[in-house]
Predict the 3D structure of the following.
Amino acid sequence: MDSLIDNYNRELNYLRISITDKCNLRCFYCMPNKNLRLIPHDEILRYEEILRVVRLAVNYGMKKIRITGGEPLIRKGVVEFIRSLSGISGIEDISLTTNGILLKELASDLLGAGIKSINISLDSLNPQRYKRLTGGDYLAQVLEGIKETERVGFDPIKINTVVIKGVNDDEVVDFAKITLDKPYKIRFIEFMPTAMIDSWSEDRFLPSDSIREQIERFEKLYPVTDQDKSRPSRGFRLKNGIGDIGFISPISHHFCSSCNRLRLTADGKLRPCLFSDDEIDIKRLLRNNAADDEIIGQLKLSAQQKSRGHMIREDIFQKCNRPMSAIGG
Ligand code: SAM
Ligand code: SF4
């Protein structure tokens, strides 16, 4: 089978698809609080257009899909769309990243439709702080959603926590302690300088090593073996833990050399890296009856455009020009 291989010999077999840039939250580190331009409805890729891209990409080795956004669960028809994705032979894994607000009602349907694993974003266990960070009063609903996800049988369940110094770093141990009672994977993510937000600064940045040290002052962490190298999180466990603790370090230990991802934005742009504005407009082809070969050509071109690594913290780094919610986190 042909593969999508980039110029640095990385095989791109993981497609992250943003199905909407809209969201029912406004996390201050993700969505800009001013000048937020949402993509007009008719510019958003239709589900059948996304399915066509996936069917073609599968013939070139794409086997993992992540559905993300914005908040993917607010888009109408998402469960049926996922069911259609699952029907594409060659797709081995479909996962979802969500803020969890709608999981209580959708978890069972999502499992039935073929989602294999769920990442739920949660940055505070304190209701007031949660509201301040996200702009929404939904902590209880998210916690219910996580419970429901477990009840219907999702495994693994990953909780993603962006750690921001002076904002929620005092909750790191509380999050780690969840793994003493629950089989969840708690993953601490470094705060990244994404586009159009002015909330990132060096003094709000906490490297994973410091987060880890903070947990180890509470209790020693033991490495979990058998990790997939293409996964960005480094896994550990507390002595009596039943869940795992991971660290995603896109800045302090970036994983660009093993990155296997390509992204499809909600408005139909192929994007080889979160931090580069090299985008290829594939929607134009899809809407102009382009032949399959032309679309495959663009997938290959996008792979060729993938840079060796991001330039965060280097002199020439420039923030990308679109918010994380539009690109898909
Ligand atoms: N709305 C969904 C959610 O929140 O899970 C999916 C989209 S969101 C953009 C995907 C992930 O990106 C979330 O885990 C979020 O915390 C993360 N994220 C957004 N902005 C970030 C930033 N500046 N630094 C680190 N992670 C960020
Ligand atoms: Fe919405 Fe997710 Fe961004 Fe928060 S992180 S604003 S939930 S897209």
